[in-house]
Design goal:
By secondary structure, this protein is α/β, with parallel strands linked by helices. The protein is about 35% helix and about 25% strand.
Length: about 325
Amino acid sequence: MHVLTYAAVSKSYGTAERPALDRVSFTVAGGERVAVLGPNGSGKSTLLGLLTSPWRRFSGAVTVAGIDARRARARIGAVAQRDWLSPFETVEHTLRLHAALYRVPFDPRQNPSVAGILAALDLGPWLRHRIAQLSGGTRRRVSLAMALLHQPAVLALDEPTTGLDPELRADLWRVIRAASEGGTAVLFSTHLLDDADDHADRVLVLDAGRIVGDGAPALLAEDLGAGVLTVDYGRDMVEPRWSEIVRAAAPLALFFADRRRAKLAAPAGWDVARERERVFAVVERSVRAEATLSWRRPSLEDAYLRLLVGGPPEPPPSAQRAHAAA
């Protein structure tokens, strides 16, 4: 069942040349975890902001369980990229006040749900500390606890683990996963591809306000084909010879290149065992031993680069012709 729906959502800011979001449509089911990926300025924060900031104007519709999100705040839990916790209040007072806003009894002795959240996020020892005394990681724990206290239908998280140490990241994802297993729809933005690969059932890739990719991480990677050849010079090249490499590596197709490295994808059904060494040999001759070559199965990072870049920036005509011929 679809708990969260974005339908033809567009959002513009002032006199910007293009909209921040351009007719974005997708759904998130109960218990599903969906990651939103994209470069800076792609619309990730705007996408989540429309769900959590009811005063923002936009066209289209955002609904939670069929209700306009602007009238469904009690069904939404949110963790912003930057928290707005009062530094002078204690953790307990902060959580108690937030619970009262949603008419949730806060006493852990009488509310097992609250007790479970405090235990899962290890906040018991910090309840009498002021927010100003907390580390950034513990503040993030408090923010997540606030988002979960009222057992929301949708949990929206904007860059939830950026800047956190690996142990705390693992702790937060364990709690988020438990919420989704309880039926909560989770939508989170991230720059960390590992977070998306490890914790998302589905990935949305945004570019210039539009969805350019949507699917399970493994399926997005598989779309690239049988494997990926990376040619890495290890340093910036004034004039990389990508056209020579494309000709040498046929039928592999170039899908990303900059002045340091190129990535080429082997088509589905390509006989890796028989053909890989031949391609390595001819590409090595074309780069004249100046680069290192590596081969692996396609990853989410490869899929992400293909969806966003699709080839070298401003390639010379010779490279375009060689790529087309390949």
